[in-house]
Amino acid sequence: MTDCIFCKIINREIPSYKVYEDDEVYAFLDITQTTKGHTLVIPKQHVTDIFEYDDVLAAKLFSRIPKISRGLEKAFPDMKGLNLINNNKELAYQSVFHSHVHLIPRYSKDDDFSITFKNNGDNYTPETMSQIASTIKEVIDHE
């Protein structure tokens, strides 16, 4: 894709702070640095989001994440955790439409980053949960 900022980073048309690269994957510091070491991991193949991955591309990208994560942990001994975030489509807060995974080191509860999940469990009966699971499983089984 010619107008993709991440493709331009991969092609060295735009500078980045590279932390890892191989034939399939490129990882670099996010310029926002939500926390120290905030890293983006991207496939070199342009795909918009997770819905465009095939099994091979998914294996290539996601198999590198533990190695890069361990690198962050060793580089920053004060790191106490790591958020792995992948936003897909605009409603889910994707802002760059070249698939990417955020690795966000966590240092304390006060590091100015939070994720909250509303508990809507009371809105779903066991029967409704079974139906939802069955519907998803049926679609997956026929993929």
TrEMBL record:
List the CDD domains hit by this protein, alphabetically: HINT_subgroup
InterPro entries given in the database record: HINT, Histidine_triad_CS, Histidine_triad_HIT, HIT-like, HIT-like_sf
Q: Which residues form the HIT domain?
A: 5-113
Where along the sequence does the record place the motif called Histidine triad motif? Answer: 98-102
Name of this protein: HIT family protein
